Structure formats: structure tokens, C-alpha cells
Amino acid sequence: MCGRIVQKSGPLDYVERIFPNLRRVFDDSAGPRYNIPPGTRPMAMHRLAGDFELERLPWGWRPHNSKYLMSNARLDKILANAWPWKLPTTHGSILVPADGWYEWKALIDEPKPPKQPYFIHAADGAPLYFAALSNWRRGAEKDEAHGFAIVTNDAAGGMVDVHDRRPVALPPDLAQQWLDPEFPTAEAVALLAEGR
Question: What is the pTM of this model?
Fold first, then answer.
């Protein structure tokens, strides 16, 4: 995943596919966004403080004592319980709704070639729900130290001709389970392997 997503649908379009009877109104004054990079604040869904929330959170997480901002969390590292994903995996499940994402492919084989963007989206145009991990804690600032990283899968296949890594998108039923703070961690991690 090259790190650009699209959120052109309204908040209710994303929420109602997962929670059709939530009976809450969500507003987002930012409106549609077609080119959202890491380091910005896309809409994210979570239950980190108990209640369901839809808000703009920082895309990117800088672990303590690290100079790197991590915008993606590789599934193989999560499954291996490798640093730094162990702690966020136990309490930081969030979803990043999107209408798709961009990948770039070199047009010719040479150093610094021009690149062609490709917009990847669901065949039926339905929203996608990217699994993500956050290090946010109740009462903490919503900053890089408590941001999120989107889970990516190198072994997912399906786009080898464009890019070998893609975000893990969960269907609505699995997305509900991913957000549930009571859902056991081991089972939540196993859901990631079932994502598209």
C-alpha cells in the first residue's frame, strides 16, 4: 500500500453498513476527500473508550523511542507478535472506512521513472473497512504517539502486477467483531487473515 486513501462518502454511508440500527447522526465538516496521505487525519471508527465513535484520528504512529512514523502495520509482523505491534493489538482495534486507495506503478523500467496511479476499490463500489491498530489510551492526546497504522498484507495476492502489499479490508460482519473491545485478542488477530 503506497499510502493514499479516498473517503468520498458521507459518515453515515460508512457507519450504516456496519451498524444499520445505530440511530445516531455523525457529522464531518471536512466533506469528501480524494487524496488522503499518512500524517493527516482521516475518519476512523473505534470503541477505544467504550462507546462507538467516528472521528478524525492521526494516520501514523510513532512508537516510544522510535524515529519512524509507522503508517502501515504488516500482518506477518502482527501474527508473529513482533515489536511494536503486541501492545496495540491487545486494545487498539479501529477501522478506517474508505472508498478505495491508490497504488502507483512505474511506466518504464529505469531509475526514477514516471509513475501511473491506479485507484483500487470494491467492484460494487461499496465502502471498504481497513483494519487498523492504534496506541491511543483514554485521556491521552490524539497525536503521533497515539495515532494508528493500517494493517497490510503482503501475501494477499490479487494485485501482483501493481503492488505486492494491500490493506486488509474487513467485510461488515467481521468489522463489527474487530471493533468489539470484548472480542478476544487472539480471535481478533485471526480475523485479519480473513480480510480481503
Answer: 0.88
Active site residues: 2, 103
Q: Taking the chain (196 residues) in consecutive chunks of 10 residues, what is each chunk's mean pLDDT?
A: 85 88 72 90 90 90 84 89 74 92 82 84 94 84 82 69 77 92 86 76
**Interior angle at CA 81, CA 145 and CA 58, nearest 5:** 25
Q: Helix count (H) and strand count (E) of the chain? A: 5, 11
Q: Phi and psi of 181, rounded to 5°? A: -65, -15
Record the cell numbers describing residue 25, joined without a space. Answer: 447522526
- All three cell numbers of 137: 489510551
Kind of pairing between the strands at 148-153 and 4-7? unpaired
